[in-house]
Amino acid sequence: MVHEKKNRLTLALFCIYLLVLVWSILFKFHVSLSDIQADRAINLIPFQDSVSVSGLRSMEILVNILVFIPFGTYMGILTFNRPFWTKVLLIFGTSLVLEIVQYICSIGRTDITDLLNNTLGGMLGIVIYRALHKILKTRAAKVVNLFSMMAIILVPLFIALYLSITGIRIRL
């Protein structure tokens, strides 16, 4: 019974994470569809333009990796007994679908580099969860869930603080 509740909590937290992930990748944190700039571009050359003068592209690469680490940790919990490569394929497939939707809907640049970095981030998440599980055993999922719940509370607070400091207004 306790294991089933833990899995339900993990699944609920994973769903919340997926909603934020889709919002960030497809809608770039906009709340109005009219604010999204139409951009249908595709880059099939890995790491082309990865080093930019401003460093923004390098930051984007790091963010893509970091944003998919939780995906890997959730895969570690929810598909614990599955082989490593099955989990990686789920992460890769999800990232691929998001990149294709971006292209079809003209809401972002479809980029092979993003696909590779998203997958790398997910793989790091799987490895991190494996390490946590070796150290904490059955408590590893509880620790991940606790961090996830804290993030669900703290991230919106940080976004609100950022918006209030910068004076950015959200239009609905």
Automatic annotation (TrEMBL):
Ranges for domain VanZ-like: 14-132
Keywords for this protein: Membrane, Transmembrane, Transmembrane helix
Pfam family, any one: VanZ
Residue spans crossing the bilayer: 9-27, 61-81, 88-109, 115-132, 144-165
The protein's name: VanZ family protein
Native organism: Paenibacillus lignilyticus
Taxon lineage: Bacteria, Bacillati, Bacillota, Bacilli, Bacillales
